[in-house]
Amino acid sequence: MKKLFALSVMVALVGCAEKKPLTPEEQWQGYCRSVGNAARTIMLDRQNAIEKDKAVEHASKIEDETTKGFILNIIDEVYALPQAEINADVEKAREKIRAEFTEKCIATPHTEMPDYKPF
């Protein structure tokens, strides 16, 4: 019983331990995952017949220029795709666009972290 109690206390302490701060590379990868998730959502909007001008209007409210640039680029690319292609396999289309823009973002040179809310 004492061993079980000691083990549970150790697990609790490890769980409460302070996390190490993220490196700039880890922060950028987290940002890029958010960009990819935003691309997936934009594809979902397109598949649900949200008009491009509404998407652009919403994106224009983004204050961070880096993020706004990514989002406007995603909107342009997603809305350029043929409707039949994006509706053939809706989940596959969403996952493909998410992965594509996550990778594009990671490959983008950057000097500072954008100010963003994780998506």
Main features:
119 residues; mainly alpha
Shape: globular
How much strand content do the residues show?
A: under 5%
The residue-averaged pLDDT reads 85
Percent range of helical residues: over 70%
Number of strands: 0
Count of domain modules: 1
Count of alpha and pi helical runs: 6
Task: Describe the largest sheet.
Answer: none
H/E element string?
HHHHHH
* Distance between the ends: 44 Å
Unreliable spans are none
- CA gyration radius, whole angstroms: 20 Å
The secondary-structure class comes to mainly alpha
Describe the model.
The protein is mostly helical. The chain has one domain (23-107). 73% of the residues lie in helices and 0% in strands. The chain is built from 6 helices and no strands. The radius of gyration is 20 Å and the shape is globular. The protein starts with a helix and ends in a 12-residue tail after the last helix.
Helix/strand layout:
Elements: H1 2-16, H2 24-47, H3 52-59, H4 65-80, H5 83-88, H6 90-107
Helix pairs in contact: 2-4, 2-6, 3-4
Summary, kept brief:
This protein is 73% helix and 0% strand. It has 119 residues and is mainly α. It has one domain.
